Amino acid sequence: xxxxxxxxxxxxxxxxxxxxxxxxxxxxxxxxxxxxxxxxxxxxxxxxxxxxxxxxxxxxxxxxxxxxxxxxxxxxxxxxxxxxxxxxxxxxxxxxxxxxxxxxxxxxxxxxxxxxxxxxxxxxxxxxxxxxxxxxxxxxxxxxxxxxxxxxxxxxxxxxxxxxxxxxxxxxxxxxxxxxxxxxxxxxxxxxxxxxxxxxxxxxxxxx
Length: 208
Description:
Elements: E1 4-15, E2 21-29, E3 32-38, H1 40-43, E4 47-54, H2 62-70, E5 76-83, E6 95-96, E7 106-112, E8 117-119, H3 121-124, E9 162-164, E10 168-180, E11 185-189, E12 199-204
Antiparallel strand pairs: 1-2, 1-12, 2-11, 3-4, 3-6, 4-5, 7-10, 7-12, 8-9, 10-11
């Protein structure tokens, strides 16, 4: 089974019969369409490309327009490729929606985490602050960052201030609690990366 593309709607909670509250994330998933089939003979590998979120032609550039005109298909904003062993079971234009997922299954979800901007060591790396007394001049400063003449440089990977968040993160083994076919909704147990509206890549978890 391939994955699906969707958007994060937000978080909520559902209650079990025992009265336990379970935090959940609501995802608007699909519908997606197969927009390209790559084969070993033509491209050197087997994969299926799917598209998501229909939009106007004027919002695409010429190569993107040409890609969709070549297959005589509607224009889609997001494209994602999934490697497969064989392409025999897939056809151009095939619909992919939440019907491909079942309650109780586990998925891996990839998304961009919330960006925190440029942050200091206390927030970014969990450093302790300096003394807050009147004479101290080191409240939130990073302090020494290395040795002197030897080696005469700062080693790569040194924990310092910088941009925090805004990175691609994958969370594995998230359980599907409910599937709403009518609204194309997946209700996932737990939290997933990003803010509401964030683009998400969802694919089944592969258990070894």
